[in-house]
Amino acid sequence: MTIRPILIHPDPRLKKPCAPVEAVTPEIRALADDMLDTMYDAPGVGLAAPQVGVSVRMFVMDCVKEDGAEPRPMVLINPEITWASDEVSTYEEGCLSIPEQYADVTRPERVRMRWTGLDGTAQEAEFDGLWATCAQHELDHLDGRLFIDHLGPIKRQMITRRMVKLKRERAREG
Ligand code: NI
Predict the structure, then answer these.
(1) What's the number of domains the chain is made of?
(2) CA 18–ligand 1 middle distance (angstroms)
(3) Residue 35: domain span
(4) What is the pLDDT of residues 43-89, one digit of tens each?
(5) Is the Cβ–Cβ distance between 104 and 78 less than 8 Å?
(6) Is 7 a domain residue?
(7) 47 CA → ligand 1 middle, Å
(8) What angle do CA 174, 159, 50 make, to 5 degrees?
C-alpha cells in the first residue's frame, strides 16, 4: 500500500492539461493502485493523476458512501464525456487538493462516459447522482480545471488565499 502526497492548490501542476495514456503499462497499473490507496486513505471519493503530480489522463473514484456497503473502486483511463443531460444538479463540492473548502457547483445531472479500463478494453457507462458530479469534477482535473474555476472570481480568490496561507503554515511546520 503506497500513499502518494497530494498536491495542494495553488500549484502549476494542477493547472496543466494532461497527456493521454498511450498504453496500460505496469507503471500505469501501479499508479492506479497507489491512487486508490491514496484516495481511500484521505479519505475521498475521487482522485485524478495530476493531484499526485503525474500529468496523465486518468482518475479513480468510488462514490459508495453507505456504511458497510461493498467498495466499488473504478479506474478511468483517457475518459471522455459522450453525452450529458440537459437537466443539471447542484452539489456542494470539495477537493483533496483544496482541503476543507466547499462550494456549490452546478453540472449536468447525468453523463455518459467512455474510457479505457485497466485491462486495456473500452468501457462505457452512464453516471448519475454523486457519481456524475464526481466523474465530471475528476475529468476537469485532467484539463487543469478545479471546482473553484466554476465559482465567481471573489469566492475563488478567497479560497486560493486560504490555501496559500495553509501551505505557508505547513511549510513552516516542516
Ligand atoms: Ni478534486
Answers:
(1) 1
(2) 15
(3) 12-173
(4) 999 999 999 999 999 999 999 988 889 999 999 999 999 999 999 99
(5) no
(6) no
(7) 6
(8) 65
Q: Whole-model pTM?
A: 0.97
| Model pLDDT for residues 105-144, shown as the tens digit of each residue | 999 999 999 999 999 999 999 999 999 999 999 999 999 9
- Is residue 3 a part of any domain in this protein? no
Phi, psi values for residue 97, rounded to 5°: -90, -5
44 CA to centre of ligand 1 in angstroms: 9
| SS3 (DSSP) at 171 | helix
Report the pLDDT value the prediction gives residue 165, as an integer from 0 to 100: 97
What's the gap in Å between 94 CA and the centre of ligand 1?
7
**Of 80, 100, 138, 169, catalytic:** 138
Residue 113 belongs to some domain of the structure: yes
Domain membership flag for residue 2: no
| CATH number of domain containing 24 | 3.90.45.10
Contact 64, 70 (CB under 8 A): yes
What are the helix (H) ranges across the chain? 26-41, 129-142, 153-173
Is 138 a known active-site residue?
Answer: yes
